[in-house]
């Protein structure tokens, strides 16, 4: 399916504020409420819009440490390890990356002590992991919701 500038504008407005009503969106893009509703439904049907969600400031909920990990895994255990990590409540996201069976993972925890507990008791306990590298987030300049079409 081909998407036009109006579809892109609808998505940009929803990225900016996912709570906009069809009427508000219609005013911003110059269409009727019904036309906007139909376009959004088509974007959802085509899985261009995967989900509507809320972006939470994790620090306000006590998750003050944000860490990123590169996790090398035995190739035969990649799916199992990825699912195990994805199921952990401290893990915000897990992606398979290019390279020798590498997973990229984002973890949110309360403090550095909890990060140490996560690494030693939860991450290193996963069978199939061969190497772990970590980086601590110092400052966020842009996140996925900042994506522009």
From TrEMBL:
Name by which UniProt lists this protein: Lrp/AsnC family transcriptional regulator
UniProt cross-references to InterPro entries, sorted A to Z: ArsR-like_HTH, AsnC-type_HTH_dom, Dimeric_a/b-barrel, Tscrpt_reg_AsnC-like, Tscrpt_reg_AsnC/Lrp_C, WH-like_DNA-bd_sf, WH_DNA-bd_sf
Species this chain originates from: Virgibacillus kekensis
Domain of life: Bacteria
Annotated ranges, domain HTH asnC-type: 3-64
UniProt xrefs under PROSITE patterns: HTH_ASNC_2
Key words of the record: DNA-binding, Transcription, Transcription regulation
Transmembrane segments: none
């Amino acid at each position: 399916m081909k998407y036009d500038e109006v579809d892109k504008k609808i998505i940009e407005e929803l990225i900016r504020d996912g709570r906009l009503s069809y009427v508000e969106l219609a005013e911003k893009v110059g269409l009727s409420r019904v036309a906007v509703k139909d376009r959004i439904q088509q974007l959802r049907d085509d899985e261009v819009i995967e989900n509507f969600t809320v972006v939470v400031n994790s620090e306000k909920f006590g998750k003050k440490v944000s860490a990123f990990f590169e996790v090398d895994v035995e190739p035969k255990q990649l799916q199992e390890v990825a699912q195990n990590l994805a199921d952990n409540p401290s893990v915000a996201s897990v992606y398979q990356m290019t390279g020798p069976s590498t997973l990229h993972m984002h973890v949110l925890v309360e403090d550095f002590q909890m990060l140490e507990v996560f690494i030693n008791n939860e991450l290193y306990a996963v069978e199939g992991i061969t190497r772990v590298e970590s980086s601590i987030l110092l400052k966020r300049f842009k996140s996925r919701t900042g994506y522009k079409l």
